[in-house]
Amino acid sequence: MKVTNLRNGAEIASELKAADTFLKRLKGLMFQKSLNSGCGLHIIPCQSVHTFFMRFSIDVIYVNESLEVVGLDQRLSPYRFGKFRKQAKSVIEVESGVIEKTDTQIGDKLEIQKF
Question: Is 34 in contact with 55 (CB distance < 8 Å)?
Fold first, then answer.
């Protein structure tokens, strides 16, 4: 899957994987050595994240059911909690710096394309 910001056409992730089962959500990105450029994880459902047992920082994009951005956590370091976002229905985790690089903002509408 691929995720794009519809406001500015920026590609947020070209290789987005879904974590849509209990076990996939439980594992998330834990214990991975890194997150490759262009890769991301879409966690469904999700309103908050943590980075325990992770070895790298991430950016977290919180979206509602319409894939509208309702919250952002930039450069969330290992062993931290992200903010709880009541409006969020899912989150997209990407490599640290992607939010700034793609100029993603609260209110932006995203599109996820399945291959």
Answer: yes
